[in-house]
Amino acid sequence: MAVELDDVxxxxxxxxxxxxxxxxxxxxxxxxKKILLAMVAASAADADSWITSxxxxxxxxxxxxxxxxxxxxERNVIGNSLQAVRKWVGEQLWALGSAAVLGTTWPVxxxxxxxxxxxxxxATVEAGQATGRLIVPLVLGLLTMGxxxxxxxxxxxYYAAEGAGRASSKVSDDLFHRAGAVGTGPEQLFxxxxxxxxxxxxxKHGRADDSLAGPAPVVGTLRKxxxxxxxxxxxxxxxxxxxxxxxxxxxxxxxxxVPSTSQFCPQ
Length: 267
Known about the structure:
Layout: H1 5-25, H2 30-54, H3 58-61, H4 63-75, H5 77-102, H6 108-143, H7 147-180, H8 184-193, H9 195-205, H10 210-213, H11 219-254
Helix pairs in contact: 1-2, 1-8, 1-9, 2-4, 2-8, 6-11, 7-11
């Protein structure tokens, strides 16, 4: 069977209907509405391209989606932003490769990032040193009060570290779960309202398009971006903690010995 005008109109109406339902369902969730709009815009653009290039007598059908695609593109804040980011990242990767291999000028932001990272690490090390100078004499003083005090102190430090580890693990698991669930509501609505119209067209054409028949557009990219941002934040935090520990260790080495606690001082 051939794809007919009524099939394409049904798809266009499905796009419009899902946006209407999204406005009602996500009245207080601006991000969800923007994600749904980006999904519909990407799907409509792919469908219009597929109909034009693969469906016979497409000249009769293609105008049904062309205007919708144009309007959605103008309103598609998330999709346009993702496209701009991909373009910028590609340009920067090319510039970095060119600078490393051909000796061209490094991008300006490389120097800015390096300067900011150096300043941050220096400040973090100094914070560790200041904390160490404050805490180390106090700890050494407590150790002189007897084995019982030292035992309670080390036990308290152990339980505090254990509790902090559990809390951080729970928080990180929750954050990664949230990152992996970005756009779940819009995705479910899209699958329920738009997917049947797409499948009806594929059934009549006799072959599905891989991009249109695959997962709902946009959400996969957003989830990867959210997950990558979390990984980057964890790396920055880990490096910061390491720099803080280095500063703290320096303070431990440099701490003045209390005469009565000389046995605890670094030799």
